[in-house]
Each structure stands twice: as structure tokens, then as C-alpha cells.
Amino acid sequence: xxxxxxxxxxxxxxxxxxxxxxxxxxxxxxxxxxxxxxxxxxxxxxxxxxxxxxxxxxxxxxxxxxxxxxxxxxxxxxxxxxxxxxxxxxxxxxxxxxxxxxxxxxxxxxxxxxxxxxxxxxxxxxxxxxxxxxxxxxxxxxxxxxxxxxxxxxxxxxxxxxxxxxxxxxxxxxxxxxxxxxxxxxxxxxxxxxxxxxxxxxxxxxxxxxxxxxxxxxxxxxxxxxxxxxxxxxxxxxxxxxxxxxxxxxxxxxxxxxxxxxxxxxxxxxxxxxxxxxxxxxxxxxxxxxxxx
Length: 293
Prior knowledge:
Elements: E1 6-11, E2 14-22, E3 27-33, H1 45-58, E4 61-64, H2 94-106, E5 113-116, H3 120-129, H4 133-145, E6 150-151, E7 155-164, E8 168-177, H5 191-199, E9 205-208, E10 215-224, E11 230-239, H6 254-257, E12 265-275, E13 279-289
Parallel strand pairs: 2-7, 3-4, 4-5, 5-6, 8-9, 9-11
Antiparallel strand pairs: 1-2, 3-12, 7-8, 10-11, 12-13
């Protein structure tokens, strides 16, 4: 049976996903996620697994954009909290155990992972300990479970390349950036989409995470082709949520003490499809549950 997609690495933070034999009725699901914080005791691993089972059933591609690891329970980390340490990671070799337990969890779904990006939590471990958890996990998934995907950067590009009716070539360009700043209690980081739209004119889709918010903002643009043909398109700005419930019942914890609000839990489904008349389209669905106290 033919694989639904092929992945190649063009640069450390540029990857290409190829889809062949696209024709009328074709569709491809992609799960966009970030901020899983998988090893936190407050990560909803059951909801993670539900989405991964759906990805397997749909033959979906999974793209993760950083902070898959929480990784805050090391002896030198001032953010550590015993309440967030899972039993399976209560080890002297704490960082090694994070990679081992994550590989065991994601291994059954490794065939669907196309990209594992770097987040600020992994970057902190890299700065303090010289250990790249993202690269180590990706290596384990590739070598032990046959994962076709690659480790990405804190920011980077994914090019979706389509061969339509075996001859026509088309592409959709996705720019990802794990994120920066606190998002803002009012704008939830939406204002950043206007800034990014200015310096990312080549992106069809812009995905951010980090702030644990969830939204989709399409920006309509007027364009002019090299042949002088005027047309309109959309640049889709997507913010991915988290699988970690930091708020819980609102009674305690760093997130509560700083005045943080409940955050949506989940990820984003992107559906790529070939629509009539002869054009590629994409649509986005937030796959969320609200945190439960």
C-alpha cells in the first residue's frame, strides 16, 4: 500500500511533505499541536491519546511545534514542583527517563509524526544541560519505531507539495514559530498575527503555540501574479492550545498565583482537500475541551 505522504529535510528547520496522485475527492488530515507538556502530572494524556488514535484512524500527519516536554523537575530548575512529577519520572536519570517514557507513549503512533519542533522548555534544558530532548526523542522514534519525521527548530517551515492528476504541481507553505511573550489577557496573542503577516508574506499558514490559547484568524490579501493577474487569497493564522491543565480548580499553583485564567485543552485539526473547481483548500477545527476543576 502506498504511503499517504513522504517527508524530506531540506534544511535543519525546513521540511517538505509530498502528496502524490491528488485528484477529485482527495483529502488529508493533519494534527497541529504544541505545548503537550507530556511529562507533567497535569497533562491530559488520555486526551492526547484520543487525538493520536483519531490520527491513526484518519491516516493523519502529526506536526508538533514544541514544549512536548515539560521538563521542569530537574534538581537545578527553580520552577520545579513535586506535585508535577509523575511517578515514572522519579529517577536519578530524570532527563533520560523523560525521553524513554515519551518514546514508549508516542511509539505506537510514530508512523504519523512528521515534525517535532523545539519549544522554550526544551530550549531551557538545552541551555542548562547541553541536552536536546527533542532530538533525542526524534532519534528514538525514528530508530525504534520507524517514524518518518524529523526534529525541527524553534521556528521553521513545512512545505506541503502536491502532485495533482500526476502532472500539476502545487504547494502550501506553513510557517511555524513556537511563540514568545505571554499572549495577553485581552488579545490572547491575536495582535501578533498582524505583525507576522507583514514579515511572512510567503506563508499561506502561520502556526504559533506557547501561550496555551486557541484561535484561527484568516487574513484576506490582494495579490498580483507575475503575469499581472489580480487575485485574492487567505493567510491562515493558527494558535495551538495545550494538553496541560495548569489552572485546575483555581486554588493554587504558579499559574493561579500570577492571575492566569483557565486555558483550553487540546490541539487543531487541519484538513487539506482538493475542491472543485480544481483547487486546493484547507480548513481548521479546534479539537478542545475546557479544563475541569
